[in-house]
Every structure is written in C-alpha cells, then in structure tokens.
Input
Amino acid sequence: MQKEIVAILISIVFLGGCSTIKRRSGIVVDRTYTAENVSDIVGRNISGYDFFIQKADITVLENNSTARFLALVKYKRPDSLSLSFRTRLGIEAARILITADTLIISDRINKRTRIGKPEELKEKYGIEPKLIFTVLGDIIVEQRDEKRRIKCSNGIFENEYNVGGRQVNYTIDCRNAKLVRTNFFESRGLGILDLEFAEFIQVGPVVIPGLVKAKSDLNNIEVTVKVEKAEIGYKGVIGFKSPANYRIIGLK
Output
C-alpha cells in the first residue's frame, strides 16, 4: 500500500498545451512577470485549470529494483482527480479517484477496491491531501500566508510554511515565479519527501516543470516522472465504477 501512495503523489503531475509539449533544459524565463507576494505565485498554479495527462512515463527505483509504468491523469475543478496506472503494454493495473470527501483505489490485478476518505492519507501515511498538487510544481500555503512578501536573494526565494500541520519548505526561482524544489518535514525535523523540478515549459499563462524527481528519506524509493502527452482544458466527465465482482475493503 505504501507504494500505491507514493505513486499517487508522484504521478499527479504536469500538463502541456493542447498540442505538442516542447521540452527545454534549464528554466524558461518569463521576463515580463514579477512576483511581489506569495499570492502572485499561487495565482500561477496549474491546479487552477482542468487538465488531462494522456501519457506520463514513470520510473520507480527501489533498492536495486526498477519498475516502469504509465499513468493517465484527469482533473476537473474544484476537486475531482482520477488516475489510471498501466503497464508498459497498456494493461490497466490500478485506477484511483480522489475528491473532497472520497478516496477509491481499484486494484485491477487482485480484483479488489479500497474505499476511504482523503483524510486517511494524512492519518495513516502523513500525507496532507491539500498538498498533493505540489508535485505539479504548485505552491500550496494557508490563506494567512498568501500576502507575505517575496524577498529574493540571488534570484532565489526560500521559505518554510505550515500547511495543515505539515512543515513544507519551498525554493522558488524568482525569474519565473515557479518552484524548483519542495521539501516536506515531519515533527522530528527529518525531510520525508524531497521534490526537484526541471525542464520547465511555458504552457499558456503558466510555466510548469516537464520533469520531476522525488526521493523519500523514510524509504529507499526514488521516482522520476516525464510527461509525454497532455492537454489543458479537459471537458470530459470524471467518474468511477467498481466492477461487480471486486471485493470492497477499507483503506489499510
């Protein structure tokens, strides 16, 4: 189950334009944009749009074992998120639905469906649901922090915030007002998840990372995600129906 949760976090990622995604090394600089407050950066979050990631290539490295799979991700505001994980041959292994009050994980291999609440991610695994979109390169803060001033030093702004009881450290490139690194901490002060963003892409009004690398200090898992095909402005319907012959169990 721990691997499922890691996959949820790392695979909710990226979009491109409605046509071709163009990758560039380094940072795409929007010289016409200046962020004065944290709210200016929040306003450029990609989670402010509906999207459909049609193909994301995911590599999971654990100890000396490597696994590769594909993910499809659909998101419709305000809170409907659907993920489908497939083998390299295109066979669906799992499907996940997350809304404001529902968490469903359908295991296609073992023919069982886990049902719970998003809050259980925090209770059982220390994952704050509202922070999921940080893997998209979004900056998520409490409303009280949105008016804080941005003070850059050598083109970088770094600050720590408390979000839903979790300490999060953001490193922002001031040239395009986007995250280049996010660190999550636990109460003992140990970083439990480190996200690094690269290969930034200009997509309409926002800049997004085209590559994400994630590493957890609490286990030996490293994850790399690359998006191959995606679009903004998804107009389809997000729903979930568990097959009748699947066993229904709680989130464990």
About this structure: The longest helix spans residues 2-11. The domain at 2-250 is CATH 2.50.20.10 (outer membrane lipoprotein receptor (LolB), chain A). Helices lie at 2-11, 38-42, 119-125.
